[in-house]
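A common beginner's mistake is to predict each chain separately and then try to dock the pieces by hand. The better habit, illustrated here, is to supply every component at once so that their relative placement is modeled jointly.
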Amino acid sequence: MTKRFSLLLWVNIAMFGSSTYAQTLFSARTMGLGAYGAMVTDACGFDVNPAGIAWIRDWDFGTATYTSTSGENAGFVFHGLSFGKRFLEDNAVAAQYTPGASLEFLLPTNLSQVTNTPVSFDKRIRYEEPFALAFARKFSDEVAAGVGVRRLEEKVTDTQYQLDPGDTTFVISFNEQTARSWRIDVGVIWKPENSLTLSAVGRSIVAVKETTLPSDFSSFRLSDASALELGAAYAITPSLRVALDLRTDKTGAVGSEWTPVGRTSVRAGLYCSTTESPFVYGVAVGLGWSYDFLVVDAGYLHFLDQGKRRGSGAVGEFDAGTITRVDLNPYTHDRLSLSVKALFGNIRENLARIESVEIFGSVYPSSYETFAYRPIGKVRVRNISDKPIQARARFYVDNLMDGPTETAPVYISPGSEEEIPFTAVFNNRVKNVSQVMVRDGDVYVSATTGDEYDDKFQTRLLFQGRNDWDGNAETLRYFVTPNDQDVIRYGREILVNEMDSLENEAKELRPFLKAQMLFNAFAGKLITVGDPKQSADYVQYPSETLKLRTGDCDDMTVTFSSLLNSIGIATAFVDVIPPGRPERSHIYLLFDTGLDPKYGGNIAENPKRYIVRKTKSGDETIWVPIETTVITKGFSATWTTGAQEYFDDVEIGLGLIKGWVRIVDVY
Amino acid sequence: MKRLLIVLILLLPAAGCQQPADVELRPDLADALEVTPLAEADSTFDRPSIDSSAVLPREHDMFGGMLVVNRVKYDAGVRVDSGAFSRVYFANRNLPVMFMGRIVGFHGIDLGMPPTLNGMPMLRVPHRIPLRRIFADSIALAGFEYFTNLTTTFQANTEYRWTASSGFPGGFDISIRSPDNLVVQSPRGGSLISRNQDFPLRWRGQGDSLTIVISRFDPLTRRVKPLLRLRPRVNRGHAIIPAKILQALPRERFYVMTFMLANRSRSEVIDGYGERVLVQAASVYNSYVEIR
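With all components supplied together, the output reads:
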């Protein structure tokens, strides 16, 4: 079994810009991993990379909540909801509503003894990302691209004071200013191989500003600088994934996800930055559990330098430019996050994967029917799920088959591989293949009922010409066409002319005599050309031989066999491959006279001139060997030669016993 | 049923009802000021203005008696005047001074033998009560108070002791230490201050009892009306008046910023005198500025 390793390596590299956006902490899985750019596959993480939603199964719902474990605020905060939907096979949309993605600063007031209006702050600065939208399209199983739009709101509430000269008290009013903008991200995911995923995200490529904060509050404006993030993911083993992120703002993350049991995942991540002290400024851990279509994730993020992360900071150190994400910034508290995701819909999860396909040689149109029951190839299938499956393979060649040919189900345990041989039911069009050609054949594997498949593999088939023969006596019989109209007509014409002479003969002898008549008429009108049997030979169909009136011994053998079969006389090939001299291999013909062996003397005094064989019905009858290479010498000569060959090969050489002589019944 | 359960589980995180914690941005305490508006005093009940007495108008109502020693500077920019004095006054609540049906003051108690200040007898002078009229102010004389000019002798960080053997059954013997010398470096008198910018204050003078009073100043009548009291949270010799506070002031242009470094004893009780007595030693610096 070939073990396939997949490596998911996360690498995000920011290309330009002094500030960029770190990923959201909406998903507990995201937070626990630390690096997520090339691993996004759901609506919870599309604001990290919008292209990821292209791998949404069908319906994708998610919700998240978190609580701060540092600072004074206790209790869970509703982070938000996510929704994703796949449509038209390769497209997906997603949306997030995130009321919990907010950051608020308060500058306390210096005033006391104010009027009736209580004042608790001099300024309140609030940043929110209330919702986001995304669209993605999968261009192939390996490439997807997406665009995401995030709503950003910056609100400043400034307390205004006016001294009332008469009352000598302060009159309080509030000046509220709000800036609203849309930030557009563009993402791409590429999977050059099953084990490697690469991603690229252009963060805030476009910033569409509806309103901006006035100049008085310009110091509170968030940066809208663009940035580029590159990501890669690599799986060391199917159950262990390693992730690495790098960004242009000199931050990054390293993470890993281990799935020891099919439904449980353990995650760990490190958040790094060259502008923070220490370099590793955050550590995260996470757990994930899935059941059916429900996925539950929990994560905990701890910052090593608590500094400003306990709910207060010096106003002199406040710099809005350092806040690139309302979820993750120098003021973010330690956080415990919980997210739940449900995946609904008809999009199936692939359970099986094709590891390899092998085709057993060329397809000879002459014997195409044999592939209905004889495997044309085999496919190695791996069960990539955590449940046993019943895998079925289907094979299809466009135009040459009316439909896929399906195998019986094969049981495959989780993680195991099995070989499934498959057959092919070709239609009559394959007999029209005049010369060698290559055609694509599609192999599908499915672990569930229905028409959907888990994996597909395209292979190549080599089709020989309709007259090509592989040298095997077994397949030579497929050139025998007793039902061909030309053959039937030819045979009938001959026998009709000889009908009178047959009436005076014994009924038991008539098959023998008919065969003799056909042979004499057949041999007298044809010219033999060509060599004895060769492998990969060219064999004419009887109708072609009768039309051309020429052919080699194989053509004659096939044609005479067809003629005899067309009048009900069974035939068989004697396939001789002399040991050590395969170049001397040869085929000649036997035909069934239908005579009871006790009547052998009626056709030949020497019993060595004929063979007693059992027919399909079990009766023993007399079979006559004829050698078509001397067909022009007449029936008697071909019989004598054939009998001599049979005597030498079988009686003397014990070819049948030793296996270098085979008798292949045609019908 | 299964799907309903899933939906419920999905909504479970939505049960989080807390709001994200806000971040309090602490101001630099070295520059922080506590700002308090000051109630307006009765316009007809005039009192020694804050720029000279270092006593807020309403505080005059709280105390029947005062024993103060002040060093006062007036910085008008082109001219800086300074002086120091001590004043002793005890109001006789039984003898109010009426003017147009309103109490405008009280007679000052005659102590008989003048009290001494650091052994030197103080000068007995009439207690003067200014009366504000529509067209012209006048003065009413009621009783006595005691005064000593300390312009040439005042010293910072020095004990000043008032002693009296008459006037009250047991007399009194009260002392207080004068504060550190106060010098204001910003604003200097005559400064032009913009309302649209934060304004830095700088001074020299140690002590936790520093108070700054911003008063509206009428150059014609030379009347001073206190508006705001500012107290630095920590006396480190500097503070910042936010532009927002400057913008809150009335649109008049002329103001005086009175810096006061005072040592006070507010609970002094003198046998035989039923009122509270303010004992104060203060260093006062007045900076007359223009705010636009």
